[in-house]
Amino acid sequence: MPERFLNIDIALRGNDFRFTLFSAGRRICPEMNLAVRMVALKTFDWKLPNGIAPEDMDMTEKFGVTLCKAEPLVAIPPRSYGYK
Questions:
Q1: The whole model's pTM is what?
Q2: Has residue 9 got a pLDDT over 80?
Q3: In terms of Cα–Cα distance, which of 70, 45, 43 is closest to 57?
Q4: 62 three-class SS
């Protein structure tokens, strides 16, 4: 997260216009929630379970309304040491 947004207490939605990174009102960024979650996911150092190599992962897809993996991904998310 950019340093200018650390240690400040503001809402992402509403009338607090100090945080206009995602715009506001009717033209607010539709992917704001995704962006916030992506930043949160970036704070983890992702690892696969013991004994599983990336090339051994089953990437088979399953058809549906949305395309998803037939077997769910199992990953271990220890917290990144660099995150405050």
A1: 0.40
A2: no
A3: 70
A4: strand
CA distance 31 to 18: 19
Same domain, 34 and 60: no
Is residue 62 located within the same domain as residue 77? yes
Residue 12: how many CB atoms within 10 A of its CB?
Answer: 13
What is the average per-residue pLDDT within 45-54? 84
In 3-state terms, what secondary structure has residue 32?
helix
* Residue 49: closest CA among 73, 70, 27: 73
Amino acid identity, position 11: A
Same domain, 51 and 38: no
Give the C-alpha separation, 59 to 70, whole Å: 8
Instruction: Report residue 15 as tokens.
Output: 């009338």
